[in-house]
Amino acid sequence: MRTDVSTTEVCTPGYAKKARPPAAWTDAIKKRSCKALGLDVASCIATHELDHRDAIEDGGCPDCGPNLWLQEWTEARKKDLIENLAHEWLCAGKIGFEAVPRMMEHWRDYYSEPHPRIRSKIGGTKNAHKAVE
Question: What is the pTM of this model?
């Protein structure tokens, strides 16, 4: 997580778009990452995104190597829902920056036991916010 941003900053509409690195920069990293994993670059680019482990919108570092990883698009869309929930809670003051990495580390648990705010989008009946309380 970044230490040079505040909740006020990340909760300002447009923050993530402004903080996001240029596509040319992330595309180059994505290609290098595909090659490093021994994947066919064209296929990898079509099926993976260069994801931020801790989302920019939640205070994650936009251009720090350890915060970047390849994630299959289908998984990325699921994780995006949890990132949005973390952002909602962060901006509402329900959690602090310190809780976001734990949520992202366990995003699959949040997805499989969804919070009511995202249940209608992904199904399920359990309340997932228990992991950060």
Answer: 0.79
Tokens at residue 107, please?
Answer: 């995003």
Low-confidence ranges of the chain (pLDDT < 50): 123-133
- Tokens 């505040």 correspond to 6
Q: What gap in Å lies between CA 56 and CA 130, rounded to an integer?
A: 23
Whole-angstrom distance, CA of residue 63 vs CA of residue 8: 20
CB 16 within 8 A of CB 2: no
- Concatenating the DSSP letter of every residue in the chain gives --SS--HHHHTSTTHHHHHSPPHHHHHHHHHHHHHHTT--HHHHHHHEEEEESS-GGGT--TT-GGGEEEEEHHHHHHHHHHHHHHHHHHHTTSS-TTHHHHHHHTHHHHHHS--HHHHHHH-----GGGGG-
User: Using CA atoms, how far apart are residues 16 and 12, in angstroms rounded to an integer?
Assistant: 9
